[in-house]
Amino acid sequence: MKKTLLFLTLLFWVSVGMKLSAQTEWAPLGAKWYYEFPYNYNNAETFITIESIGDTVINGITCKILEQECIREPFINRIYYTYKADDKVWVYDGTEFRLLYDFTVPPQGEFTAYGPHLYGICDSVTNVKVESAGFEEINGISLKYMTVVLSEFGWYFSLYNDDPTKISEKFGSYGFMFPQENCAIDVPGPTWLRCYEDSEFGFFTTGVSDSCTYEYGVGVKEIELADNIKIGPNPVSGILNIELKGNLESSNFSIYSSTGKLIYKALVNSQNTQFDITAYKPGTYVLKIFHEGVFRAGKIVKM
């Protein structure tokens, strides 16, 4: 009887361990990431997807094949090869595998990460400093994470975001998957992770966008800001005035932080509306207005 109970207990913990291992697998087949991507001088916004489409062997190492696609900017479509071992994630640079994430580094420690550039024009490496580390629960699963900063000037995980970036052992950076070097003028870059999903882990959204595939300024009619919408003052320190002309009453109005976090959302029912943003931290904010299938976005600076 005791042997039977011991066997069942061991079997239980083995099965639990196998389940947790599967749930924290890096880039399982079918895994898909959605990243926000402003372009056209920030007058339009679309999304980039990265999907795990298979396995292959490179330099004797079994790795995942990741396919990157953008329906609006197809020239950035490319293939990556990656794998995870011993709490480290690696990515292939065309010759050898280079370190991308290292979850063994303690807070205040550093590692060197390889960043394949979105446009393939300046693939390089950068120093990554770990600010903090711990565990977070997502979809009922406890996952390792670390928050990091890129110590070299001109590098980022999330364009326009100077704050530390969180990196999850399950889906990587909450910014873009790979660190990016700002090495060219007027070249748009990705901002942050919108959604991640795979068959074992399920679906996860960071909440930075209304949907994984949200777009504006692309294939939809845009409101002419100067003619139909007046927002001011800009910069602003307290009261923000919004004037909607024509038939734009009953528009949905949203304010987002520079990291893509939704700060405020309301229905504007009159031509002249005031919002008190005195309590907002100084910085750049993105305003989005939606009315009957028409989108418009702009930026304000809070002083």
Give a concise summary.
The protein is mostly beta strands and 303 residues long.
What does this protein look like?
9% of the residues lie in helices and 49% in strands. The protein is mainly beta. The protein folds into two domains: 181 residues; 78 residues, Sandwich (Immunoglobulin-like). Strand 14 and strand 15 form a beta hairpin. The protein is elongated.
Secondary structure elements and their pairing?
Blueprint lengths: L1 H22 L8 E8 L4 E15 L2 E9 L8 E8 L2 E5 L4 E6 L7 E6 L8 E15 L2 E10 L4 E2 L8 E4 L3 E2 L6 E2 L11 E6 L3 E4 L19 H4 E4 L6 E6 L6 E6 L5 E7 L3 E5 L6 E9 L2 E9 L1
Antiparallel strand pairs: 1-2, 1-14, 2-3, 3-4, 4-5, 5-6, 7-8, 8-9, 9-11, 10-13, 11-12, 14-15, 16-17, 17-20, 18-19, 18-21, 21-22
Number of helices: 2
Low-confidence stretches: 2-23, 219-226
Structural class: mainly beta
The side-by-side strand order for the widest beta sheet comes to 6-5-4-3-2-1-14-15
**Major beta sheet, specifics?**
8 strands, antiparallel
| The number of domains | 2
Instruction: Provide the gyration radius in Å.
Output: 22 Å
Task: Describe the structure using short key phrases.
303 residues, mainly beta, Immunoglobulin-like, 2 domains, 5-stranded antiparallel sheet, 2 helices, disordered N terminus
